[in-house]
Design a protein that fits this description.
The complex is a heterotrimer of chains A (305), B (355) and C (285). Chain A is mainly α. Chain A has 13 helices and two strands, in the order αββαααααααααααα. Chain A is 69% helix and 2% strand. In chain A, strands 1-2 form a two-stranded antiparallel sheet. In chain A, a hairpin with a 3-residue loop joins strand 1 and strand 2. In chain A, helix 3 (72-105) crosses helix 7, helix 3 (72-105) packs antiparallel against helix 10 and helix 4 packs across helix 7. With 355 residues, chain B is of the alpha+beta class. Chain B folds into two domains: 4-233, P-loop containing nucleotide triphosphate hydrolases (Rossmann fold), CATH 3.40.50.300; 240-353, RNA polymerase II/Efflux pump adaptor protein, barrel-sandwich hybrid domain (OB fold (Dihydrolipoamide Acetyltransferase, E2P)), CATH 2.40.50. Chain B is built from eight helices and 20 strands. In chain B, a hairpin with a 4-residue loop joins strand 16 and strand 17 (312-317). In chain B, helix 2 (93-103) crosses helix 3 (109-122), helix 2 runs parallel beside helix 4 (138-150) and helix 3 (109-122) crosses helix 4 (138-150). The radius of gyration of chain B is 24 Å and the shape is elongated. Chain C folds into two domains: 1-55; 74-284, MetI-like fold, CATH 1.10.3720.10. The longest helix of chain C is centred in the first third of the chain and has 44 residues, at 13-56. The radius of gyration of chain C is 26 Å and the shape is globular. The chains are: A mainly alpha (305), B alpha+beta (355), C mainly alpha (285). Chains A and C meet through helix 1, helix 3, helix 4, helix 5 and helix 7 of A and helix 2, helix 4, helix 5, helix 6 and helix 7 of C.
């Protein structure tokens, strides 16, 4: 009992500093050495000069950045990446919102659980398998071209892959689960009594949706769209499987620089640029809309009364 | 031996919230003291300071004659019952009760089993040992939480609004039950509640807390009959409160003018002419259409009259605009909304409170 | 609309019934539209999975409608192929190691940030979430530079390290949520009953977080199993995981053996997802 008082100002009920730092040291060291340091290296490498044959010279040069700005190909790929990300976001919103709405409002827990397991399972399935599935469906002897020919839309089955629309369809397919899950949580959080109150006050289903559900799920729409957009910006596999070079994203170009061209410095330069665009997008959206991506906010904890 | 001592305890949170201000309280061995006050008044913080979850910013806390500032909660001999019971959801009832006996390592292993049974018997839930907490009703969870807190034989029992989450009927029977167990064991107990009825019915003494301070500490009858402040008068029981100015002071009487109504009251020895004071009357002493002549009589219009079984309760609006609650004796007249009535209250039933 | 409400309120049952019918008829139309549209969306989600399943059992090189029967030919081919089995072995090793690594990093960071105050909390929070928000190709290139400098790489364990970092945000977020949801009074009750801090963590906090820890580890496992681009960059052609092997095979043909592997993966994924759902106590109730 006679525990000598550690006269520590009452910050957090008597924590000992060493334990506190011991606990944080493992994740902090891991994340700094294996995440922050590699990113820093990436930045450093982006100023090195590549010597063909996989060697590089440690000089500080901005020539990689100059090359990015001068050769229209790379800027073009960045713009294409932004464009396809926007189309993907819109597509998954149009498909995802009604589905999320139905799942969040249905009385059937069987339907909800079944579709959720389906959606989440497909979410974790490698892009390659899902891309492959769409390739099978869209190639000339696949379901859709045959269907189109049967219906007389085309004279003979025409392969849709590789092609722009094949890429769009597969990207919407791949990112739809992220949208549905984000929106589902958001719609679920709207107290159903609010909808009932609106109905009770004489609003029809459309008015109720427009004036109650939609405004209250605005944050969900923004976070879901941001998430899908950001993830779409990094897509590599799908353009390779379902696209031609005109449908290649900046990520594909980066991968090619590192592996095919063995030009790590220029790959690093393109990575830094892509990263800046993504981080800027997140920062601007979070600042403008005041939403937290990924459901984690930095500040928690309330005081006890 | 004094079991609990709070001496000039202050608690300021890092955010600047001053939760407890100069709180001093001595609780004797075996005593049941209730800290009562509105939410946010600092009563929970005071209790958590005793348990060791909060460190006082300044002041002294003593348990069982030992100064415990800085002693962590697990080394204090306190048993606490939490508001939502905090029964470990992943353990059975038996494991919950055994927890305090085994983690300290100071309870002989072969006695743990007997102790669990003993505790279950005490709270009259023998046979519930292998249930999970979510298989219990609210009242049963409450009893198990109590059994768990008492199992390691703490010197002090701390109850943090333990009845708040129960429905009214269960709450009343648990009040009796809690008091029975407390008296049976004779353990020093502090109860925190915002419910004044609970405070009045259960405790040896009441400590009324407001805005971080103890406004009055005393036996339930004393606090009810002799409220020290306007807040206490208003918070404990129902009170009619009249603000006024002292007009005249004689040996034993004082005359107070409250917005046109003159009250004669027993004079406390510390008022002088011109002081701003508050006159407090209880509804049961404020009689509508009194048959006899009371010292103080005034008139007003009935707004609502409610039948409460043994009497009618009457809400009356005075010409000054203030509302007064009075009673109509069982043999009194029938009154209804809109009637003009007279109200009478004896001087001895008028309390003069100085802020 | 307004006269509608008037009649609903009227006490004559006949009007009320008539009105209800008209109103709910329109409601039912909207519901029907919503249900049909969302059913199409569900079909969209389901279709590729169905096609892959059918294809994996087809006896011929190509999928035909109607299917010419069922065959396990492509599964046999998978289990007879040393390349596929080695890739599977690599994938499982890396995924298990990544699950352990990612969960230990993410959970410890979440615990530290929830329970203690640090001066650079924002930095650690950022580092804990950012990996999953950056395009994976960037993480891949970054690790290529790091491993290149250190002179390691081309071995499965290097990929396990990279995956541990890249997927640590999932356990981090899940454990953060869990810690936020745990009622502090459980831990306070344990301390009040005499349990020291370490005992409280071991006997109360961790058991209460079990579902979150488990879900986090499984997510990391599944994601690692399916990840391609980082794997490919780091492997440097010297070892293959299942996704790398599939991608390589796709260059030559759309062989049904890929469909067979895919279905194995789908089944594995669904089983793990159902486990997560069960242990996490119905995350989408």
């Amino acid at each position: 009992m006679a525990h000598e008082a550690q006269t520590e100002p009452a910050t957090d009920s008597g924590r000992l500093p060493p334990i506190k730092y011991l606990v944080v040291s493992y994740p902090a060291i891991a994340l700094v050495t294996l995440f922050a340091v590699p990113l820093l290296l990436l930045f450093v490498f982006s100023f090195f000069r590549n010597i063909s044959g996989g060697y590089l010279r440690y000089v500080v040069t901005a020539e990689n950045y100059v090359r990015f700005l001068q050769e229209p190909l790379y800027l073009d790929r960045l713009v294409f990446s932004l464009r396809i990300a926007a189309v993907t976001t819109l597509g998954s919103l149009v498909l995802g919102y009604p589905l999320a709405y139905r799942l969040a409002t249905t009385d059937s827990s069987l339907l909800r659980r079944a579709v959720m397991v389906l959606v989440v399972s497909s979410l974790w399935l490698t892009f390659i398998i899902r891309g492959y599935a769409w390739a099978v469906l869209l190639r000339s002897n696949g379901l859709f071209p045959i269907l189109a020919a049967e219906l007389g839309l085309t004279d003979a089955p025409v392969s849709l892959v590789p092609g722009y629309w094949a890429l769009v369809v597969s990207m919407v397919y791949v990112f739809l689960p992220f949208m549905v899950l984000t929106l589902y949580t958001s719609i679920k959080n709207v107290d159903h009594e609010l909808r009932e109150a609106a109905r009770n006050l004489g609003a029809g289903p459309i008015t109720t949706f427009r004036h109650v559900t939609l405004p209250l799920t605005k944050d969900g729409i923004i976070s879901g769209s941001l998430l899908v957009f950001v993830l779409s910006m990094g897509v590599y596999v799908l353009p390779r499987i379902l696209g031609n070079p005109p449908q290649w994203t900046l990520a594909v170009v980066i991968g090619n620089q590192v592996t095919v061209e063995s030009n790590v410095p220029f790959g690093a330069t393109l990575s830094i640029i892509l990263m800046l665009v993504v981080v800027a997008l997140i920062a601007v959206t979070v600042r403008l809309a005041g939403v937290d991506t990924f459901g984690v906010s930095a500040t928690e904890e309330g005081e006890q009364g | 031996m004094s079991q609990i001592i709070l001496d000039a305890v202050e608690k300021v949170y890092p955010g600047g919230v001053h939760a407890v201000k100069d709180a001093s309280l001595v609780v004797e061995d075996g005593e049941f003291v209730t800290i009562v006050g509105p939410s946010g008044c600092g009563k929970t913080t005071t209790l958590r300071t005793l348990a060791g979850f909060e460190q006082p910013t300044s002041g002294t806390v003593g348990l069982g004659g030992i100064e415990v500032s800085g002693v962590p909660p697990n080394e204090r001999a306190t048993g606490m019952v939490f508001q939502d019971f905090a029964l470990f959801p992943h353990m059975t009832v038996g494991e919950n009760i055994a927890f305090g006996l085994t983690v300290g390592g100071d309870w002989p292993e072969d006695e743990v089993d007997t102790r669990i049974e003993e505790m279950l018997e005490l709270v009259e839930l023998s046979g519930f040992r292998d249930r999970m907490p979510d298989q219990l009703s609210g009242g049963q969870q409450q009893r198990i939480a109590l059994a768990r807190a008492l199992a390691p034989e703490p010197e002090v029992l701390l109850l943090d609004e333990p009845l708040a989450s129960l429905d009214k009927q269960l709450r009343e029977s648990m009040q009796v039950e809690l008091r029975r167990i407390q008296e049976q064991i004779g353990i020093t107990t502090i109860l925190v509640t915002h419910n004044q009825t609970e405070a009045l019915t259960m405790s040896d003494r009441i400590a009324v807390m407001n805005d971080g301070r103890f406004e009055q500490v005393g036996a339930p009858t004393e606090v009810y009959q002799q409220p020290a402040t306007k807040f206490v008068a208003d918070f404990i029981g129902t009170a009619n409160v009249f603000d006024g100015t002292v007009r005249n002071v004689s040996d034993s009487r004082v005359t107070v003018d409250c917005d046109g109504v003159e009250f004669e009251a027993a004079a406390p020895d510390y008022v002088a002419v011109g002081d701003s004071v508050t006159v407090v009357t209880r509804p049961e002493h404020t009689v509508v259409e009194p048959g006899d002549t009371r010292t103080n009589v005034f008139e007003g219009d009935v707004s609502v009259s409610r039948f409460l079984g043994d009497h009618h309760e009457c809400h009356v609006t005075l010409p000054s605009g203030s509302d007064v609650v009075g009673v109509v004796d069982s043999d009194g007249p029938t009154v209804s909304g809109g009637d003009r009535v007279s109200l009478g209250v004896d001087a001895k039933d008028c309390l003069v409170v100085v802020e | 609309m307004s006269d509608g409400r008037e009649t609903t309120r009227s006490s004559t049952g006949e009007y009320a019934r008539l009105e209800t019918k008209r109103g709910s008829g329109r409601d039912r139309l909207y519901q029907l539209l919503l249900n049909s549209y969302t059913s199409l969306v569900i079909g969209f989600v389901l279709l590729p999975l169905v096609v892959i399943s059918l294809m994996s059992f087809t006896p011929s090189e190509f999928l035909r409608f109607p299917p010419e029967g069922l065959s396990l030919r492509w599964y046999r081919e998978f289990f007879d192929s040393r390349a596929w089995l080695v890739a599977m072995q690599n994938s499982l090793f890396i995924a298990i190691a990544a699950a352990v690594g990612a969960t230990s990093i993410g959970a410890t960071a979440a615990f530290a940030l929830d329970r203690y105050d640090y001066r650079f909390e924002m930095v650690l929070t950022g580092l804990s979430i950012l990996p999953i928000l950056l395009p994976p190709v960037i993480i891949g290139v970054a690790f290529v530079t790091l491993f290149g400098l250190l002179g390691v790489g081309g071995e499965p364990w290097t990929l396990a390290v990279a995956h541990s970092i890249f997927f640590s945000p999932f356990p981090f977020v899940l454990v953060s949520q869990g810690l936020g949801d745990i009622d502090r009074s459980y831990e306070e009750a344990a301390a009040d009953l005499g349990a020291a801090k370490a005992t409280v963590i071991r006997r109360i906090t961790v058991p209460l977080l079990r579902a979150n820890l488990f879900a986090g580890a499984l997510f990391a496992f599944i994601l690692s199993l399916n990840e391609y681009i980082i794997s490919w960059l780091i492997s440097g052609f010297s070892f293959k995981t299942i996704p790398i092997q599939i991608f390589t095979s796709l260059r030559y043909s759309y062989s049904p053996v890929i469909a067979a592997v895919s279905l194995l993966f789908i089944v594995m994924t669904v089983v793990v997802m159902l486990m997560v759902d069960r242990f996490a106590g119905g995350m989408w109730k």
